[in-house]
Amino acid sequence: MDNQLKKEIEAVVGKLNSITLLPNQGCTSSVQQITTGRNKFLLKTSYKEKYREWLKSEAEVLKKLASHTEIPVPTYYGYIEEADRSHLIMSFEAGMTLTSALKIADTTTEKKALMKGFGELLQKLHETKPIDLFNHRGDWLDNQLVMAERYLEMGEADGNAELLNKLKSTKPIPVNQTIIHGDCTADNVLVVDGKVQMFIDVAGVTIGDPRYDESLAISRFIDNEVLIKSFYEGYTRYKVSKEEYSYFDEGLYEFF
Ligand SMILES: Nc1ncnc2c1ncn2[C@@H]1O[C@H](COP(=O)(O)OP(=O)(O)OP(=O)(O)O)[C@@H](O)[C@H]1O
Ligand SMILES: [Mg+2]
């Protein structure tokens, strides 16, 4: 780490003791644990323009949620922009992603409990009274489609123009908008003390279509009837149809 950056980080957290690259790296950023005499922090760094924008909105979300403990996320400490990269500093949470927890769970009973917990956490988020922290202008889905078009033009999307046109012309019938996570996969929730307790990677948190979260949440488990059933023991407020699921998970998500 160069001296200038170290200085800026120390201005936020105090004198650094150690800097360690985490074994589990994200796809869109690099993550390091930094420690001071007393505390542990997570330093998340992004380089590409698209991901730097996401990191900036993650910083804004964490800042806004600092006074809203009903939505469990890491604590915000600071955000630093350099010429060619951006950094976010947040609390280091002792836990592991749900993906990792499911991998090391020995029994089906344990896996079922984790999936039910995932459903409960998401249910709680979607049932949280929308706070006017998120000045959402216009309809969330319309905004996402505009952004999808931009990513397509930038050559930054997996989806193609044909898929995007289809998404524009087959929008699902609207449902009530709620607070959403916006990238609610098993990689982006943390299991702490055996319980699914916290959201991470929160750049997409806003008021939006809860069916997007639900579809991404069940995506990895779609062929596992037992785990899907457990998820829905926790998430009882709605069940996406096959059409809604494929619109969001196999459609819209291809652009993000
Ligand atoms: N606050 C935190 N405390 C502890 N570990 C964390 C924290 N935030 C992230 N991690 C770890 O870092 C990894 C990557 O974080 P994150 O999902 O935010 O990065 P990302 O690059 O946006 O990921 P991706 O693009 O792959 O979804 C996580 O899987 C988790 O293991
Ligand atoms: Mg992630």
UniProtKB/TrEMBL annotation:
Residues 26-220 form the Aminoglycoside phosphotransferase domain. Pfam families: APH. InterPro entries: AGP_Transferase (IPR051678), Aminoglycoside_PTrfase (IPR002575), Kinase-like_dom_sf (IPR011009). Coiled coil: none annotated. This is Phosphotransferase.
